[in-house]
Specification:
about 140 residues; mainly alpha; about 65% helix; about 10% strand; elongated
Length: about 140
Protein backbone atom coordinates (compact mmCIF):
# COMPACT_ATOMS: atom_id res chain seq x y z
CA UNK A 1 0.00 0.00 0.00
CA UNK A 2 1.36 3.41 -0.96
CA UNK A 3 1.63 6.15 1.62
CA UNK A 4 1.60 9.85 0.86
CA UNK A 5 2.58 12.85 2.98
CA UNK A 6 -0.10 15.36 3.89
CA UNK A 7 1.17 17.88 1.31
CA UNK A 8 0.71 15.40 -1.54
CA UNK A 9 -2.76 14.40 -0.33
CA UNK A 10 -3.70 18.06 0.00
CA UNK A 11 -2.49 18.79 -3.53
CA UNK A 12 -4.36 15.82 -4.99
CA UNK A 13 -7.55 16.71 -3.10
CA UNK A 14 -7.32 20.41 -3.97
CA UNK A 15 -7.21 21.40 -0.30
CA UNK A 16 -4.84 23.11 2.06
CA UNK A 17 -2.94 20.81 4.40
CA UNK A 18 -4.44 22.82 7.27
CA UNK A 19 -7.93 21.73 6.13
CA UNK A 20 -6.88 18.09 6.37
CA UNK A 21 -5.48 18.66 9.85
CA UNK A 22 -8.72 20.41 10.81
CA UNK A 23 -10.84 17.49 9.54
CA UNK A 24 -8.63 15.16 11.53
CA UNK A 25 -9.08 17.23 14.72
CA UNK A 26 -12.84 17.29 14.18
CA UNK A 27 -12.97 13.52 13.84
CA UNK A 28 -13.91 13.44 10.16
CA UNK A 29 -10.68 11.67 9.25
CA UNK A 30 -9.01 8.80 11.04
CA UNK A 31 -5.77 9.54 12.83
CA UNK A 32 -3.09 8.89 10.21
CA UNK A 33 0.01 6.79 10.58
CA UNK A 34 3.22 8.68 11.17
CA UNK A 35 6.60 8.15 9.60
CA UNK A 36 9.49 10.11 11.11
CA UNK A 37 6.90 12.15 13.01
CA UNK A 38 4.99 13.18 9.86
CA UNK A 39 1.48 12.27 8.85
CA UNK A 40 1.16 9.77 6.03
CA UNK A 41 -2.06 8.67 4.36
CA UNK A 42 -3.17 5.90 2.09
CA UNK A 43 -4.82 6.80 -1.19
CA UNK A 44 -8.25 5.84 0.23
CA UNK A 45 -8.24 9.09 2.22
CA UNK A 46 -8.97 10.89 -1.07
CA UNK A 47 -12.38 9.16 -1.20
CA UNK A 48 -13.15 10.31 2.33
CA UNK A 49 -12.09 13.88 1.49
CA UNK A 50 -14.28 13.83 -1.64
CA UNK A 51 -17.23 12.69 0.48
CA UNK A 52 -16.61 15.52 2.96
CA UNK A 53 -16.45 18.02 0.09
CA UNK A 54 -19.71 16.66 -1.37
CA UNK A 55 -21.45 16.97 2.00
CA UNK A 56 -20.14 20.51 2.52
CA UNK A 57 -21.35 21.44 -0.96
CA UNK A 58 -24.83 20.29 0.08
CA UNK A 59 -24.66 22.62 3.07
CA UNK A 60 -23.95 20.08 5.79
CA UNK A 61 -22.08 21.39 8.81
CA UNK A 62 -19.09 19.59 10.30
CA UNK A 63 -21.22 18.01 13.07
CA UNK A 64 -23.67 16.69 10.46
CA UNK A 65 -20.86 15.28 8.34
CA UNK A 66 -19.42 13.64 11.42
CA UNK A 67 -22.77 11.98 12.02
CA UNK A 68 -22.93 10.82 8.40
CA UNK A 69 -19.50 9.26 8.68
CA UNK A 70 -19.87 7.66 12.08
CA UNK A 71 -23.07 8.57 13.88
CA UNK A 72 -25.15 5.63 12.69
CA UNK A 73 -25.09 1.95 13.52
CA UNK A 74 -22.39 0.20 11.50
CA UNK A 75 -24.91 -1.74 9.47
CA UNK A 76 -26.87 1.35 8.43
CA UNK A 77 -26.27 1.61 4.67
CA UNK A 78 -24.91 4.89 3.27
CA UNK A 79 -28.10 5.58 1.31
CA UNK A 80 -30.16 5.46 4.48
CA UNK A 81 -27.69 7.78 6.20
CA UNK A 82 -27.85 10.28 3.34
CA UNK A 83 -31.67 10.16 3.21
CA UNK A 84 -32.01 10.77 6.93
CA UNK A 85 -29.61 13.71 6.99
CA UNK A 86 -30.89 15.12 3.68
CA UNK A 87 -34.48 15.15 4.94
CA UNK A 88 -33.42 17.13 8.00
CA UNK A 89 -31.28 19.52 5.93
CA UNK A 90 -34.12 20.02 3.44
CA UNK A 91 -36.54 21.03 6.22
CA UNK A 92 -33.93 23.40 7.62
CA UNK A 93 -33.40 24.99 4.20
CA UNK A 94 -37.14 25.45 3.68
CA UNK A 95 -37.31 27.33 6.97
CA UNK A 96 -34.29 29.46 6.05
CA UNK A 97 -35.77 30.23 2.61
CA UNK A 98 -39.00 31.45 4.24
CA UNK A 99 -36.98 33.62 6.60
CA UNK A 100 -34.88 35.04 3.76
CA UNK A 101 -38.01 35.81 1.70
CA UNK A 102 -39.48 37.69 4.67
CA UNK A 103 -36.24 39.64 5.07
CA UNK A 104 -36.23 40.44 1.36
CA UNK A 105 -39.77 41.84 1.56
CA UNK A 106 -38.80 44.06 4.49
CA UNK A 107 -35.74 45.34 2.64
CA UNK A 108 -37.82 46.11 -0.44
CA UNK A 109 -40.16 48.20 1.70
CA UNK A 110 -37.20 49.96 3.32
CA UNK A 111 -35.69 50.78 -0.07
CA UNK A 112 -38.77 52.83 -0.89
CA UNK A 113 -38.85 54.61 2.46
CA UNK A 114 -39.32 58.38 2.17
CA UNK A 115 -40.10 59.08 5.81
CA UNK A 116 -38.68 62.37 7.11
CA UNK A 117 -37.99 60.98 10.61
CA UNK A 118 -37.36 57.63 12.24
CA UNK A 119 -40.56 58.07 14.27
CA UNK A 120 -42.55 58.44 11.03
CA UNK A 121 -40.79 55.38 9.63
CA UNK A 122 -41.56 53.34 12.73
CA UNK A 123 -45.22 54.39 12.65
CA UNK A 124 -45.50 53.51 8.96
CA UNK A 125 -43.97 50.08 9.54
CA UNK A 126 -46.36 49.38 12.45
CA UNK A 127 -49.33 50.37 10.29
CA UNK A 128 -48.02 48.31 7.39
CA UNK A 129 -47.69 45.21 9.61
CA UNK A 130 -51.40 45.38 10.27
CA UNK A 131 -52.13 45.36 6.52
CA UNK A 132 -52.81 42.00 4.82
CA UNK A 133 -49.70 40.64 3.07
CA UNK A 134 -47.41 43.06 4.89
CA UNK A 135 -43.85 41.99 5.66
Amino acid sequence: MSEYPIGEIARRAGLAASAIRYYEREGLLPVPARRSGRRVYGEEILDRLALIELAQGAGFRIAEIKKLLGGFKRRTPPGERWRDLAARKHADLEHRIEELERMKRVLEVLQSCECPTLADCSRAMRERRGAPGAP
